[in-house]
Structure formats: C-alpha cells, structure tokens
Amino acid sequence: MIVEFEVVETREAYGEIAGEEDAYVRRRRFLEMLMPFDPLFSVFGVSLGGDPDAALQALAAWSFLMPEAIDERALDALDELERDHAWELSRRTLEDVRDLFKNSWDRIPLQGIRAGIFLLDPARMNPADRRWGYTGIGSVPGYALLLYAEPNEYNMARIQATLAHECHHNVRLALFPWNPADLSVAQHIVMEGMAEAFATELYGEETARYYVTEIDEDGLSRARAAIGAALDERGFDATRSYVYGDRAATMGGERLGLPDFAGMAVGYRVVRQYLEETGASVAEATFLPADEIVRGSGYLDLGGAAEAASRSGFRITHPSHGVASNSRVTWAIPIRRSVFLIAVLIASTSCIVAAPVTTWPSSTNRSELRAQTWTSWTASTPSGSSMAPITASRSRPGGVNCRRMAVVSRSRRTAEARTRSPIRTLSTGSTRV
Prior knowledge:
There is one protein chain. The chain is α/β, with parallel strands linked by helices and 433 residues long. The protein folds into 3 domains: 4-175, no CATH class; 207-311, no CATH class; 327-432, no CATH class. It contains 19 helices and 8 strands. The strands form 2 sheets. It has a 4-stranded mixed sheet with strand order 1-2-4-3. Strand 3 and strand 4 form a beta hairpin. The longest helix has 19 residues, at 185-203. 45% of the residues are buried.
C-alpha cells in the first residue's frame, strides 16, 4: 500500500500576501494558500472555494491571522520558524511516522497525511493559551496543521512532537472513527494520551507538552478519581469537561472543578502505564480499543473510583447509604450537527471561544447534547415529573432504569443555558449530579 506524505510549503505564500497591496488579491491568495486543506475545513462546514467572506469569518473565529494582518511582524515569525527548520523538521516527522507504522499501513484506512504550518493571531486566541503560542489540529484523518502565534524557545523545541501528536490522531481516528455524540470519556482520554505518548516515544520524554506536565499531584489525584468514575460518560459535551478540565467552561462546557487539561494528563499516564505493564509499543497499542488500554493499565481504580469521586464532589452518593448510583437518567437535547462539529474543533485547537446551539425538535433521532444528569438509588427513577417542568414545558419524563433518556418537546426551542438552570425540586431517591 502506497501512503503519501506531504508538507505544504507556506512560507513563500505568506511573503507574497504580505507584499500585495490590493486587499481583494490578498484575500484570494490567502484562501488559495489554505486550499490544500479544504477537505479538513469542509468537515466543519466551511468551504474555502465558496463564499470568501464566510470562509474568512470562520478562519478568523479559529484564530487564524487574517490576510490584512500579515505584515512585517508576521514575516519575522515566519523567519523564526525557518531558522528553527520548522518545514524541514516537519518533513522528517512525517518520515518518522511512516517508518514507525511501516509494517501496518495495509491495516490503516489512510491514504496519506498532508501537513501545513500557518500563523495564528495572538489577539484572537484564548488568553490562557497565549503563553504557549501554538497549537495543532489533527482531528480529520489525512490532514495535520501546526499553528503558531509567537514562535518561542518552548514551542520551537517541540515542532516534531507537536506534529507527531497530530499525525497519531490521524492514524487513530482512521482506525477508530469518532462519533462526537457517542464519544466516551475513556475513548477521549486514550486518544489524547496515546498521541502524546507516541510523540514522546519518538522524540523523548523532555518533549512532553504542558497539558500533561503542568498539573500538580493534588490536581492529578482529583482528576484520576473523577475520570475513573466517568469513563462511560458519552457525548463530546460531557467528555470535554473531563479532558480539557475547567477551561472547557469557556467553550460551553461544564465546570467540574478539574485542572485544565486534566483528562489529557490522566490519559497520558494511562497509556504510559499500559505500555510499561504490557511491553507494547505505542504503534502496537494504536490498534487496541480504549477500554482495553484503560483496563490493562491499572492506572485508574475502576472498582472504587466512583465512591472516591463522590467524596470529591464529582458524584453525589446516597445521603443514608453512602453508595454511588447504579442507575442514571440523562436528559438530552438534539443539536445541530454543523455547529456541534465546530464545537469539537474549538475544544481540540484551544483557539476559539464559542458554544454550540441547541434546539428542541419533536424527534430525537439526532446527535444529542447532555443537558442534565440525575442518579437514582432505586430500580427506577421515581417522580420523574418533577424534573421535566424545570427542563422544558411539555417534556416527557421516563422514570425507568436507563442510562440515557431523551427529552422531547413538540412546541418550543430552548437555549442550552435554559436547560442548565438549577433543578429546584429533587425526586425521591434521586438527585442531580
């Protein structure tokens, strides 16, 4: 099987844009420079060959440096990238990735990887990320982006590790395509942790990046308890709050009292411990399902994690019996696919601040966004009617032993924030998580 690898040369294109005085031509050349990655952007509902204003608006929301802002400072940043051999190192990284999987490409449904280096606008980035000055995107198999706002000693020392991380996402997601509506916490932390373990296996432990190193022991302990108790939670709206920690709240996620990037730090340690326990390489582990990695690592206390998390405030135990719930009812609302996919990119790139838009149609055979979760200590959830009026008028409670229940409303559209307002009346035997 022939797998093609390519690094798109963008340095010269940026120089041409900077030297162009005509604003229309600058915009056109900017979109032409990005066109080799149009299939990536199209997954998120953006056509680089369509309405240029709409495309540029979307790219601005993703923190790309806009054509009118490509000036001498931008060229200085590109010069720094060139002095640090960013394009050459990127080519070498693709060769390393190809060689590491050289005996496995016939098992990977991926025809190649196209990589590119582009500039970000620091003013548009999440303030918490400006310190690091870079990020990457690898969530669409076949494409990997390195994005830099301010090249510095830290991020230049990790050019290859960053690209390797994104390339591993390409491979892993080709093997295990993710459905944002059904993505589990276990799958999400393993995906991120394995990508970082792949990078450090190639380029050394010293290249591990801030989201796995910038966490203290207390934060790591709390994260292990919370994540161990939530491995089966599903839906990107739920997983991002564990994987990205409380920073996810700036992107429409739920604040759980977790350190930033908690799940990435835990996932990295899960994968590393699995490799140590089994003697497998990251390349070999790439073909294994997330649940097998989690169980085989022994890093998370799967038996006592729920109770530990309850004591930490991540699950509410029965006030009398002190046991965690075995039954759960999740109230969910359908979401618009295109906006949801943009939210996925938002959380993975750390560049954008936005929240998904939600609606309440009469059917629920669409991707869903978790709105509220209740736990029950009985075989069913009694008095479910006390939940529904707070959630949405004319919603139908189920009161059954289930892991998921869709809320249905035939008449109203309700904003996400409305569904997150506190429930004022607790059902007998149940409480909100």
